[in-house]
Amino acid sequence: MQTMQEQPKTNLTERLSGLYYLPGEIAIIKDDIDRLQSTGDPIWQETIALETARLDRCTKELEELIGIIDAVEDPVLHKVLGLRYAAGLMWPQIALEMHGKNCESAYRQMVNRWARKMEEKDNA
After folding, report:
1. What is the pLDDT of residues 104-115, one digit of tens each?
2. Which member of 37, 55, 72, 118 lies 3.0 to 4.6 Å from 78 by CB, making a disulfide possible if both were Cys?
3. Sorting pLDDT into bands at 50, 70 and 90, what band is 7?
4. Range 75-90 burial, b when 16+ CB lie within 10 A, else e
């Protein structure tokens, strides 16, 4: 079993990809909590507490990831990050959305350079 220090660190782009899934997961957790609370059965209190803690973790992660993108001052990079990670678009779709036909590799490189720079800054 790995301890927290031994676990491999996920890179920024992997974390940001969670933006696509987190809103749906948060909605499911909220529905589960509401359903369990509506039963009024005290047997579910421990499950409700666990789901509430899970909801808090997901919400915090979502806020952190949105904060990372919101902190990007370059408007093009900001939009590309939003399209890629919040909207879940593929690179060719992003290029079309950004009106840069056949420029998907340029946008991908832009994001990769930014992510490396942010990771280097975090590790410094």
Report:
1. 889 999 999 999
2. 72
3. very low
4. eebebbbbbbbbeebe
What residue type is assigned to position 77 of the chain? Answer: L
Q: Count CB neighbours of 94 within 10 A.
A: 22
Q: What is the DSSP letter of 4?
A: T
CA distance 46 to 92: 46
Q: Which H or E run contains 91? A: helix 91-97
Whole-number Å distance between alpha carbons of 91 and 77: 13
Closest CA to 22 of 64, 53, 79, 52: 64
Q: Enter the tokens of residue 7.
A: 């676990």
User: What are the angstrom distances between the C-alpha of 72 and each of 75, 97, 118?
Assistant: 8, 19, 11
